[in-house]
Design a protein that fits this description.
Rossmann fold, 2 domains, globular, about 350 residues, 6-stranded parallel beta sheet, alpha/beta, 12 strands, ADP-heptose-lipopolysaccharide heptosyltransferase activity, 13 helices, glycosyltransferase
Length: about 350
């Protein structure tokens, strides 16, 4: 390719990819004529395809966690031929910093991470007080040690009306009725999950007060079991809930969220997708800090009991009581959600 291009090497998590999007907005503003490509794992690629700043999404051929040095060298030669002027390496691992170095990309930017001196030649140091994820990634648009920007753009994704319509139809969701999406999963661990019984009770409150409203559960195949439990508990209360966990591709889940009237989510990747699509979002936090990665929607509410033991940032409750989630009751959440769906 003849024109200079920018390469973004994606994080491995959906939420992190979403929160890196303002970095692309800043880079596009700095170099409006420079196309941006993203190298991303298959599990995250659909998120980048929903960003208007992205020209091409290149899907990584590497196995998770494997060095695969020969494969990285071979792929780097493919990147070399595309003519990149700069690369922004968002994961902190050594193996991802190898790729732009092997590809001969002249300007290579990222955090020090795993002692990546030499592999990166614009090295940032995360030695400031802990920053929220959006400013953490956005800082890479500036020189190291530059003052943090006073204001930053919000993460933004876009889905066409046609894609929303087709995806609703493909999954049996009526176009003429309201849709509330629940995202009850959390890849991080069970501590971040609001109890299934609470989700079921919330579904009952929504449907009883808003007749005809559809409630759909989204998540990965790993979330299918907890979503089945929610469906069974809701059905026992005579409320029908549609379980789509594991039944949608990520691009379909993004389209369904884009068409939702409101989204209720644990601190997960789908929460940040909903926020970037500017849907009304109610975010539930327990063991994680609601200030670290909050939703940015025009209509958003972060709920946390902020107990003394939180945020513990543990995958499972170290005290065994999971009070940060159990004691955040469906009634408390419904008071706030009612303002969005009423």
């Amino acid at each position: 390719m003849s024109q200079d291009r920018t390469l973004i090497i994606s994080p491995n998590w959906i939420g992190d990819a979403v929160m890196a999007q303002p970095l692309l907005q800043l880079l596009s503003k700095k170099n409006p004529s420079r196309a941006i490509d993203v190298l991303a794992p298959p599990s995250v690629a659909p998120v980048w395809r929903a960003m208007k700043e992205v020209d091409n999404v290149l899907v990584t051929p590497f196995r998770h966690g494997a060095l695969q040095l020969r494969e990285r060298w071979n792929y780097a030669q493919v990147l070399r031929a595309r003519g990149y002027a700069d690369a922004y390496v968002l994961p902190n691992t050594l193996k991802y910093a190898l790729i732009p170095w092997l590809a001969g990309i002249p300007h290579r930017v990222g955090y020090k991470g795993e002692m990546r001196y030499g592999l990166l030649n614009q090295l940032h140091h995360d030695d400031q007080p802990p920053r929220a994820m959006v400013p953490f990634y956005a800082a890479l648009a500036d020189a190291p040690r530059d003052p943090l920007r006073a204001s930053l753009p919000r993460p933004a994704l876009a889905v066409s009306d046609e894609q929303k319509r087709l995806t609703r139809g493909a999954h049996g969701i009526a176009l003429d009725k309201p849709l509330v999406v629940f995202a009850p999963g959390a890849e991080f661990g069970s501590a971040k999950r609001w109890p299934a019984a609470h989700f079921a009770a919330l579904a009952r409150a929504i449907v009883l007060e808003n007749q005809g409203t559809q409630v759909a559960l989204l998540g990965s195949p790993k979330d299918r079991e907890v979503c089945d439990e929610i469906v069974a508990l809701a059905l026992a209360a005579s409320v029908r809930v549609l379980n789509l966990a594991g039944a949608t591709r990520l691009d379909e889940a993004i389209a369904l969220i884009a068409s939702a009237d409101a989204v209720v989510s644990n601190d997960s990747g789908l929460l940040h997708v909903a926020s970037a699509l500017n849907r009304p979002v109610l975010a539930i936090y327990g063991p994680t800090d609601p200030d670290h990665a909050p939703p940015f929607s025009d209509m958003a509410k972060s709920m946390s009991l902020r107990l003394e033991c939180a945020p513990c940032r543990q995958r499972e409750c170290p005290l065994g009581h999971h009070a940060c989630m159990r004691e955040l009751t469906p009634d408390m959440v419904w008071i706030e959600l009612r303002k969005m769906v009423g």
